[in-house]
Design brief:
This protein has 344 residues and is of the alpha/beta class. It contains 11 helices and 13 strands. The strands form 2 sheets. A 7-stranded mixed sheet has the order 8-9-7-10-13-12-11. Strands 2-1-3-4-6-5 form a 6-stranded parallel sheet. The longest helix has 16 residues. The protein is globular. The two termini are 34 Å apart. Bound molecules: NADPH dihydro-nicotinamide-adenine-dinucleotide phosphate and N-acetyl-L-glutamyl 5-phosphate. Its EC number is 1.2.1.38.
Length: 344
């Protein structure tokens, strides 16, 4: 049994960690932080956790966190970096759901996140937490940078064709759509029902911070030339889910893409390749730690198309964080993550 702490327990990914960890037989959640709700019982704010969690929120305190075996940071960007060094020194493992340790180049991180990195020495140590490409490094890591939700959905969708070298990595397109929970639980005008409901729009079309994260991930997959991805996200008036439609130009006409994808992910517990021509839906992964995808090609065209879906709060965040914790702490990778999707 290990003890874990969650920093940011009132946010969408924090409460999703609580929901999933309630069913994990090897984990005791020992403390949950919130500055705005300190002192309030967790199950009072989230009645779905009545009977599963008898803790009250407490103010974040590094000394208290240092009593845990592992700490999840489910906090906005640029928060974890101030505490991680101290926790690692105290022998605590860390999974950071924010972006603080995802980008290996400090200057690139500072450009996209608009602030100075306060723990640059830890950037090199952090392991990018996409188990499908980094499983062995994650097992030995003290600090895991959990990938972004779009980045997970898009990197997994491109992974087999990039590794196999059967497309041009410099001409990739990723058309992403996310539900509103991807933007977090804090109040924002653009996320109000009256603003985002009954409507559909692109955002960050001139550059999103997951763009460099996706390209860095594709470089780890051994792209033969520098990968370039045109990524445009969209906000969909639903709560959970991401669908990414990916386009790549085929460089090897003899390649059997369906076989490449099925072989690459055959032993992956959390990636599902559907039959050729299928259309995965976000609701097929709602609440589930799965990335589900399917391949298409239009007649007479040299583009391969992949439709890839995840639940942004599960495989895109809390589920993947628990998958990483399982690897770091020697549990079965699937522990606590076996439940199928919620339908309808
Ligand atoms: N939502 C999603 O789909 C995904 C989110 N992520 C990333 O995960 C992280 C959490 O996201 P999400 O759950 O949506 O965020 P929310 O905005 O919903 O929640 C943020 C949480 O952090 C706490 N918090 C805020 N500021 C601080 C601070 N300075 N110190 C300590 N705690 C703080 C808040 O509580 P309080 O203010 O009361 O302390 C709250 O509990 C973000 O970095 C996000 O980018 C990654 C993948 C997907
Ligand atoms: C709908 C919506 O706003 N989605 C978020 C998803 C990104 C996210 O959560 O990623 P980080 O972990 O890098 O912050 C966004 O586009 O900013």
């Amino acid at each position: 049994m290990i003890t874990v702490g969650i920093v940011g327990g009132t946010g969408y990914t924090g409460v999703e960690l609580l929901r999933l960890l309630a069913l994990h037989p090897g984990v005791e959640v020992a403390l949950i932080t919130s500055r705005s709700e300190a002192g309030r019982p967790v199950a009072e704010l989230f009645p779905s956790l009545r009977g599963h969690c008898d803790l009250a929120f407490e103010d974040p305190d590094d000394e208290r966190l240092a009593e845990c075996d592992l700490v999840f940071f489910a906090t906005p960007n640029a928060v974890a970096m101030d505490s991680v060094g101290h926790l690692l020194e105290q022998g605590v493992k860390v999974v950071d759901l924010s972006a603080d340790f995802r980008l290996q180049e400090r200057e690139v991180w500072e450009h996209w996140y608009g602030t100075t990195h306060t723990a640059p020495d830890l950037i090199r140590e952090a392991v990018y937490g996409l188990p499908e490409i980094n499983r062995e490094q994650i097992r030995g890591a003290r600090l895991v940078a959990n990938p972004g939700c779009y980045a997970t959905t898009i990197q997994l969708g491109f992974l087999p064709m990039i590794e196999a070298g059967v497309v041009d990595p410099s001409r990739l397109i990723a058309d992403g759509k996310s539900g509103a929970s991807g933007g977090g639980r804090q109040a924002r005008m653009g996320m109000l029902l009256g603003e985002a409901g009954e409507s559909f729009r692109a955002y960050a079309a001139s550059g999103h911070r997951h763009g460099p994260e996706i390209e860095q991930g594709l470089r780890m997959m051994q792209a033969r030339s520098a990968p370039q991805v045109t990524f445009v996200p969209h906000l969909v008036p639903m709560v959970r889910g991401i669908e990414a439609t990916l386009y790549a130009e085929i460089s090897d006409e003899a390649a059997d893409f369906q076989a490449i994808y099925e072989n690459r992910f055959r032993d992956e517990p959390f990636v599902d390749v559907m039959p050729w021509g299928s259309l995965p839906e976000t609701r097929s992964v709602r609440g589930e730690n799965t990335c589900r995808m399917a391949l298409h090609r239009q007649p007479g065209q040299n583009r391969i198309i992949v439709s890839s879906v995840t639940d942004n709060l599960v495989k895109g965040a809390a589920g993947q964080a628990i998958q990483n914790m399982n690897l770091m702490c020697g549990f079965d990778e699937r522990e606590g993550l076996k439940a199928p999707a919620l339908l309808p």
